[in-house]
């Protein structure tokens, strides 16, 4: 193996790959915020006693979980403009990732809320707390502690899912790597480097997950 040639290859590709990594992190963080913003109200809607409230949330969750993210990206970026709804590539990418993550996050939170015993609700009601006060002060703190691992897994998967936004011409890490590979006769080191970067980003968010779990467990005890 020609180590000098390998070093030169990585050095030449480094600026574009680092820039792509920055876009990947931005996309992941923006989609995490968007997914959480959609996931919480969707979970509450699915817990509603009224079918008129539940039905739209159930349809949204079913559609997002039952279709590939890649198809969702194509629909938002390539099909919606045909009916007059046009998004810039960045907005389309973040929107698709947020919609997809929101559906999975809502299910994690809904399951966690349902896991809180009915006795907690009845005890709160007996103390004079209403539905929303009980949900906010009693149920959600317990549910979040249970939901953090599964919610974190969904958010961590966003790091890898950002590689799909390259199909809407956004130069995140994967597209930057493909562009670097196009001018190289030895693509494997570049793809391995990209894989290593994705892995490091995932490890970073896993560490954040463990930190949040410790904080919530201390607060509970």
UniProtKB/TrEMBL annotation:
Q: Which UniProt keywords apply?
A: Amino-acid transport, Cell membrane, Membrane, Transmembrane, Transmembrane helix, Transport
To which protein family does this belong? Belongs to the binding-protein-dependent transport system permease family. HisMQ subfamily.
Q: Which PANTHER family match?
A: L-CYSTINE TRANSPORT SYSTEM PERMEASE PROTEIN TCYL, MEMBRANE COMPONENT OF AMINO ACID ABC TRANSPORTER
Residue spans crossing the bilayer: 20-47, 188-208
Task: Please name the InterPro entries in this protein's record.
Answer: AA_ABC_transptr_permease_3TM, ArtM/GltK/GlnP/TcyL/YhdX-like, MetI-like, MetI-like_sf
One family from Pfam that matches here is: BPD_transp_1
* Name of this protein: ABC transporter permease subunit
Note the topology in the membrane: Multi-pass membrane protein
């Amino acid at each position: 193996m020609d180590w000098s040639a390998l070093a030169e290859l990585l050095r030449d590709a480094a600026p574009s790959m680092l820039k792509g990594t920055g876009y990947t992190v931005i996309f992941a963080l923006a989609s995490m915020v968007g997914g959480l913003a959609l996931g919480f109200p969707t979970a509450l809607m699915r817990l509603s006693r009224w079918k008129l409230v539940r039905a739209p949330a159930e349809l949204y969750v079913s559609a997002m979980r039952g279709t590939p993210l890649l198809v969702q990206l194509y629909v938002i970026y390539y099909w919606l403009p045909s009916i007059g709804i046009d998004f810039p590539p960045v907005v389309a990418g973040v929107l698709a990732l947020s919609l997809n993550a929101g559906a999975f996050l809502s299910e994690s939170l809904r399951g966690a809320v349902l896991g809180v015993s009915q006795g907690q609700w009845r005890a709160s009601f007996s103390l004079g707390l209403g539905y929303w006060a009980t949900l906010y002060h009693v149920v959600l703190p317990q549910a979040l502690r249970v939901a953090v691992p599964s919610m974190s897994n969904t958010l961590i998967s966003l790091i890898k899912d950002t590689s799909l936004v390259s199909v809407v011409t956004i130069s995140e890490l994967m597209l930057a790597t493909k562009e670097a590979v196009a001018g190289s006769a030895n693509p494997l080191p570049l793809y391995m480097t990209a894989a290593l970067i994705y892995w490091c980003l995932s490890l970073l968010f896993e560490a954040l997950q463990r930190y949040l779990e410790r904080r919530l467990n201390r607060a509970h005890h």
